[in-house]
Amino acid sequence: MGFPGEILHPGSLRSKAEGSYLVHGGPHETDFVFSLVRIVADYFLRSRGLNFPRMMILFRLAHKGQCSVSDISHHMQISAPGASQLLDKLVEVGYVSRAENNDDRRMRNIEITSKGLALVQELKKEHQQKLITLMEAVPLQEREQLRKSLETLNRILRSMQ
């Protein structure tokens, strides 16, 4: 699997860190796609002092609204103490807040703040612009095939949910 910040060589479709070639239908094909998504995401996150798991929490809260620590830990498939540790930094920088649950005082509700919501919107906008820039770098005659391949991947991902 790829590492954040590794250099991908699209001409040869080879990962410098792994030294493996992308073989159509082979195990490295998914590694390549995952690495590409991860590199783009990490680029945006590092400049904001975030990491990928914290970004996932922000997007979850922006989508779902209020959650408990156990909801977040279940969604991310990590322990509750692990989720709580990730949340600590987000609370510290003001992206999320913790509030007492009115129904159960032992529980804490986690909510995204307006600052966190603004960051999610900014990340979405920058991500979209980066994807447009990447698409524009693809030769015109190859864009339609790439678009069709991405649609196929999206359809497969939706069917897996």
UniProtKB/TrEMBL annotation:
Keyword Ribonucleoprotein: no
Stretches assigned to the HTH marR-type domain: 1-155
InterPro entries: ArsR-like_HTH, HTH_MarR-typ, WH-like_DNA-bd_sf, WH_DNA-bd_sf
Domain of life: Bacteria
Protein name from the UniProt record: Transcriptional regulator, MarR family
Species assigned in the record: Gracilinema caldarium (strain ATCC 51460 / DSM 7334 / H1)
CDD domains from the UniProt entry: HTH_ARSR
Key words, A-Z: DNA-binding, Transcription, Transcription regulation
Gene3D superfamilies: Winged helix-like DNA-binding domain superfamily/Winged helix DNA-binding domain
Example of a GO MF term: DNA-binding transcription factor activity
TM region positions: none
PROSITE patterns assigned to the protein according to its UniProt record, in alphabetical order: HTH_MARR_2 (PS50995)
